């Protein structure tokens, strides 16, 4: 059995999404490090796995995938009977699934574009010896505040974003949230009680502890 | 029976994704016009339908949804037996579904951000009496060309993006492509033979013609 392999980088948020999912499911896998600094992700062997040249790429036996959120959804379905259930409690209920799907779209289109800019400015630029552009930080924090106001209202009604159980929707946020907790942007979470509780919950899960530095 | 309602704007690409899906499925529905130029989408009662203030929002009986790609997936599953099948031929096959899911992520993260900027600069800005920024058009066309090179390679192997049949993955592209066909960016499609054939196929479908009226 060829098994599960993840081709990525431990500091990459999309790679972390996949690792979180595998840990939640107690699945064995091999992690193959892709040398981003050396441009390995833009060279042929990796491009054959992801022609868009981004980590992570993934294998489960003969099946080869890329795009972190396609991979996490595959794992959640393929290994549904095992480890944490990352789908809605009644996963065959099309209406319940649609509610989780909304949350996954919101993370991808409303939360992540803004949050990723804040991580780039305040974390990754410093690693490259560049300086944070505080004007960009201010602008993006204003946008993130609005998104988190919506999350606060949602989490007043439900324990997690898609309902009363932890699902992929919550999981997809964890890597970027963890990076932001190491920056002044953390205040946007702490100022909102339910968001603050949710952030604490999802980052203290054993799987989250395993992959977050 | 309360039926299906779409709250949106007939010219909005995201609204059109949902309308396309409903037409492919031969489903009856009511389109409730949201007056974007009056900011109706940023006020109540629309915000109760989508707290992020974007069209479309959607109702099927008691179920209320937003985010176009969550809505299209809901429709494709809920009405799987009716009209065009928009899922892979063997929709319960988790691996086949994952391949379609990759394509949906690629459309959302690689194609749409670039293609939408080009539609904004060359089509929508003109509606508002603003001028096209040609420097942005050049920059974004270079990025779109790189994406379409990947599509060309993919479509040399398969008739459609997810395999041999038309699926949601192809459908999600149609509204923005239709706008770009009326701009000089059309050349990027024309220059790539398989992409050109695929664009012709998907825009000639009866449902695709219906949403242009």
CATH architecture descriptor name of the largest domain in chain B:
Up-down Bundle
Overall pLDDT level of chain A: 97
**CATH T-level topology of the largest domain in chain A:** Glutathione S-transferase Yfyf (Class Pi), Chain A, domain 2
Residues in helices of chain A, as a percent range: 55-70%
CATH class of the largest domain in chain A: Mainly Alpha
What is the architecture of the largest domain in chain A at the second tier of CATH? Up-down Bundle
Shape of chain B: globular
Strand content of chain A: 5-15%
**Which structural class do you get from the secondary structure elements of chain A?**
alpha+beta
Family (chain B): Belongs to the GST superfamily. Phi family.
Subcellular location (chain B): Cytoplasm, Cytosol
Pfam families (chain B): GST_C, GST_N
Domain GST N-terminal (chain B): 2-83
Structure description:
- The complex is a heterodimer of chains A (213) and B (213).
- Chain A has helices at residues 13-24, 44-47, 68-78, 94-127, 134-157, 168-171, 174-180, 186-190, 193-204, 206-211; strands at 4-8, 30-33, 57-60, 63-66.
- Chain A has 213 residues and is an alpha+beta fold.
- Chain A folds into 2 domains: 2-77, Glutaredoxin; 92-210, Glutathione S-transferase Yfyf (Class Pi), Chain A, domain 2 (Up-down Bundle), CATH 1.20.1050.10.
- Chain A has a 4-stranded mixed beta sheet with strand order 2-1-3-4, covered by helices on one side.
- With 213 residues, chain B is of the alpha+beta class.
- Chain B has 2 domains: 4-79, 3-Layer(aba) Sandwich (Glutaredoxin), CATH 3.40.30; 94-211, Glutathione S-transferase Yfyf (Class Pi), Chain A, domain 2, CATH 1.20.1050.10.
- Chain B has helices at residues 13-24, 46-49, 68-78, 94-127, 134-157, 168-171, 174-180, 186-190, 193-204, 206-210; strands at 4-8, 30-33, 57-60, 63-66.
- A 4-stranded mixed beta sheet of chain B has the order 2-1-3-4, covered by helices on one side.
- In chain B, β1 (4-8), α1 and β2 (30-33) form a beta-alpha-beta unit.
- In chain B, α1 runs parallel beside α3 (68-78), α4 packs parallel to α7 (174-180) and α5 (134-157) packs across α9.
- The longest helix of chain B has 34 residues, at 94-127.
- Chain B is globular.
- The mean pLDDT of chain B is 97.
């Amino acid at each position: 059995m060829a098994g599960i392999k993840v081709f990525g980088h431990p500091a990459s948020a999309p790679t972390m999404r996949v690792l979180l999912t595998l840990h939640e499911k107690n699945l064995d896998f091999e992690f193959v490090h892709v040398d981003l600094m050396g441009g390995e992700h833009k060279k042929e062997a990796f491009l054959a796995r992801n022609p868009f040249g981004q980590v992570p790429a993934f294998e489960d036996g003969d099946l080869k995938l890329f795009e972190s959120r396609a991979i996490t959804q595959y794992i959640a379905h393929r290994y549904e009977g095992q480890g944490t259930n990352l789908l809605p409690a009644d996963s065959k209920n099309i209406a319940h699934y649609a509610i989780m799907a909304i949350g996954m779209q919101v993370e991808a289109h409303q939360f992540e574009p803004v949050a990723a800019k804040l991580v780039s400015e305040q974390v990754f630029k410093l690693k490259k010896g560049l300086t944070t552009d505080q004007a960009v930080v201010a602008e993006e924090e204003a946008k993130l505040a609005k998104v988190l106001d919506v999350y606060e209202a949602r989490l007043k009604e439900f324990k997690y974003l898609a309902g009363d159980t932890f699902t992929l929707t919550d999981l997809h946020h964890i890597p970027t949230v963890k990076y932001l907790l190491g920056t002044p942007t953390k205040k946007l979470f702490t100022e909102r009680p339910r968001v603050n509780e949710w952030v604490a919950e999802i980052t203290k899960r054993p799987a989250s502890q395993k992959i977050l530095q | 029976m309360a039926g299906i309602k779409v709250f949106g704007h007939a010219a909005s690409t995201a609204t059109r994704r949902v309308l396309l899906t409903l037409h492919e499925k031969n489903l009856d529905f009511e389109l409730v016009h949201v007056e974007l130029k009056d900011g109706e989408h940023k006020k109540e009662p629309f915000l109760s339908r989508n707290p992020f203030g974007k069209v479309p929002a959607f109702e099927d009986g008691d179920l209320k949804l937003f985010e176009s790609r969550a809505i299209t997936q809901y429709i494709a599953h809920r009405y799987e037996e009716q009209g065009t099948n928009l899922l892979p031929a063997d929709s319960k096959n988790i691996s086949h579904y994952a391949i379609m899911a990759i394509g949906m992520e690629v459309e959302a993260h690689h194609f749409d951000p670039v293609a939408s900027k080009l539609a904004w600069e060359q089509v929508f800005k003109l509606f508002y009496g603003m001028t096209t920024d040609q420097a942005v058009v050049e920059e974004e066309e270079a990025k779109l060309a790189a994406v379409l090179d990947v599509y060309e390679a993919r479509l040399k192997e398969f008739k459609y993006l997810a395999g041999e049949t038309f699926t949601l993955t192809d459908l999600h592209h149609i509204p923005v492509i239709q706008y770009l066909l009326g701009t000089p960016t059309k050349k990027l499609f024309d220059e790539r033979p398989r992409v050109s054939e695929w664009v012709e196929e998907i825009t000639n479908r009866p449902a695709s013609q219906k949403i242009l009226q």
